[in-house]
Amino acid sequence: MLLGLGLLYVGAVLVLNGLWLLGKIEDREIIVVNVVSGVVTLAISLFWAFNPEADAGSIKGAALTLLFTATYFWVAYNRVTKVDGRGLGWFSLFVAITVVPVAIQSLRGADSSISLWMGWNWVGWALLWFCYFLLLTMKQPILRFTGAFTVLIGIVTGWVPGVSLLQGWLNP
To answer: How many CA atoms lie within 13 A of 10 on its CB side?
Structure first.
């Protein structure tokens, strides 16, 4: 159930951040969903890493989820402080590079439809974080593309599967 909870908030924040990039939400308004999603993913990560039954797999899951957490808190921080986002862009490159082997390993080891889907999620998230690097640090003119891609990735990798897991329509 924690995976469903986390993915629901990943979906919400990505969809809303995409709409924000497309000019549909004000800078100050986007802070709330980023902080809430950051708190949710932080709590899940702390549980996965430090519960009495934590193992290598749950700690890896926590470490990877904290990459999302840091991103959401950083987006909120940037909106409060009104900085240009270059630091977040460099962090996004770090994350994109970090999760490429995760995507490859997930796809190679996929033994079920859910593990195959998770592998493709990592591919999508790596591409999305790379778009943020290009947009924020390299100042490439891809704002509209990145906004639309963020909405799409939010729906496909977060919102729909999060709701499906929480409703019991999908089993991890």
So the answer is: 32
